[in-house]
Amino acid sequence: MLQLLDISVTFNEGTLDEKKALNNINLELAEGEFVTVIGGNGAGKSTLMNVISGVLTPDIGDVYINKRQVTFLPEYKRAAYIGRVFQDPMAGTAPSMTIEENLAMAYARNKKRKLKLGVTKKRKELFKEYLATLNLGLEDRLNAKVGLLSGGERQALSLLMATFTEPDILLLDEHTAALDPSRAELVTKLTEEIVRKFELTTLMVTHNMQQALDLGDRLFMMDAGEIIFDVEGTEKQHLTINDLLEEFRKRRGVQFEDDRSVLG
Amino acid sequence: MFISVFGAIESGIIYAIMALGVYFSFRVLDFPDLTVDGSFVTGAAVAAIGMLNGVPAILATLLGALAGFIAGCITGILHTKGKINPLLSGILMMIALYSINLRIMGTPNISLRNVSTVWVQLQSLWEKTGIDQALNGLLAAIGFARTPSTWAIVFAMIIVVAIIKILVDYYLKTEVGLALRATGDNKQMIRSFSANTDTLIIIGIGLSNGLVALSGALIAQYSGFADIGAGIGLIIIGLASVIIGEALFGTKTIARTTLAVISGAIIYRIVVVIALRANFLETGDMRLITAVLVIIALVTPMYIQGRREKARRLKKREALAQQKKAEGV
To answer: What is the pTM of this model?
Structure first.
């Protein structure tokens, strides 16, 4: 479903600040595969997400979504195939617009936007049904401005908006990191339910190793712009945090300089 | 007094179209667009030259609006494709338009005295209805010494502005309109939902300036001349209308906000007319009055809100003190 071939990205090339953000990345995600990505700060996780979503164009290499080459497709066009949830709960919704208007905008993701009403009676019923699955009571607040919702509610709504049109790829960029533990747990639970229900091909970046182990059926560990550890299936199911730290030391020859940066 | 207020309502309702344009850029797109000062005159210039060259008045007026639309689109392109700061894009377009307007007009001022403008044409139709005589007779009966020369403009403009308002309200609720509003609210978000924010900004600023130019074309015909300086400081008048309207009538829904903006434009004109009747104020003080009005409209709601909050907290404190006292006894 998603394929990256020989992707490299270098920032500030030729200067003292030169940084190889991604170094010859090759990966392939099968349809419906749920992958978690861990790595320290500067490992290249966000750059990877940005290359897939089209915010960044790679220096070399190609991106394929559903066998279609999208390397040079601008972000907004690629968004027709990609659902995204950001770390900042404020980023994924329009605060001064209502819940139903936000959902209507998300609904139009993979269609051509036309000069007809965005919120219709029929769609309202549909939106209500979807909102009810969040169990947050948002289905009774269709006309509330999204800016009035709490961070957790907004992130749950963002997740719904990113997924209910069943995109080919779902990108989650530390989407629970800015929430308090109980809200983070709720959004994590919703994520798992939604990804399973729609069988979405998902890439989830997280700073939380436990979350990376609990969720998904495959795990990438990144460091210095490379995927240094790729594990799936039963092998992943039996992994522990200590195994992960051990793997890191084995592959990098050094102790993880700050374990907490990965443990989160 | 009545006549000058009537005149203020008359011109205010024409300027309301301009205020809706400013609402579109400033509020909906969150784009402080100064093109307005230039595109208003562009609308007037194109309409005037068109009419002087035998183009039918309504067509000439619409051509003026189209010219404004194009000017706005260029501002949008400067910002989105040229990555120029919004404020600067507008200023650049504004000064460029000054020269362009002068080229269109050929002279700094064009008289439309002997031209068959939309208002002249409307008047000749209107006279047959006899509404003027009826309304003025009514006014005379309740004791008004002087009565308006015609009601045609007010009635026609109410209909025109109502149609524009309904179109704007509808547009902002369509799929495209929602994306446009989100562009002003959270660009990152709407881009991640597959909307081309560049195109939306270009069209949005274009539409905004189309409305402004339409207003300019109608005002030129209303006042009987097109003048190169007519647009100076207009953006502040537009903003004053938006802010006064929003402060008085609120922004709960789109329909309410657009109505507030239209009312704001009319109220602004009335306030200026009344202020100018004060002996110590001269016509040249108009811009100062505008600035003061905007400041008042911006500061007062905040002040009132602050007072309300204070009163609310005080009440709660007192209630608690009373309760404690009662329990103590």
So the answer is: 0.90
